[in-house]
Write a structure and sequence with these properties.
- By secondary structure, the chain is α+β, with helices and mostly antiparallel strands.
- It contains six helices and nine strands; from the N terminus they run E-E-E-H-H-E-H-H-E-E-H-E-E-E-H.
- It is globular.
- The mean pLDDT is 84.
Amino acid sequence: MLIIRRTENSDDNQFWLHTSEGFETEMLRLRNQIYFSNPSIKKQITQEKCLVSDRSAPLISFAMIKENHDFIVSAEMTELSINMSALVFIIHFRGSDINMLGIPENAIGKKETYYFDKETGNQLLMELELEYPEGDWMGKTSIQNVISFYFSLPQEAQLKLESAVKELEYYRE
């Protein structure tokens, strides 16, 4: 279960579920498109292995960087120490392929800054800034990863997981 929340109101923005049987979907999108005769519902539920490479934020980030290698204008790495030792990667991309770069039509590039915990390798933060003609940088946004380890899930999370699995099973029928 992966939940991505908007910081301004803490509402769930994305809710990914991957069951032990390998069924995976984005629950909020699925819920928003439920119609009793909608054949595309089943297409949104896939069955796949749950690979670490598909779930690891650092591996996903590095795969994206590698995929967009031809668009890299500059890349730098520094070490930063706040309350832990972090590696910081700043990658500047520029190009006209807005689909590959994931930028708006009027942008010419982007700068992504990744912060990784040096000790664990966990991705802590990703910041994104868009580059526009005339050297303007706007639209700064960030994604903070909060990583928690539990011996057992908190009751609220356990109930949300169980409910989502039951809901997904209903949609699969």
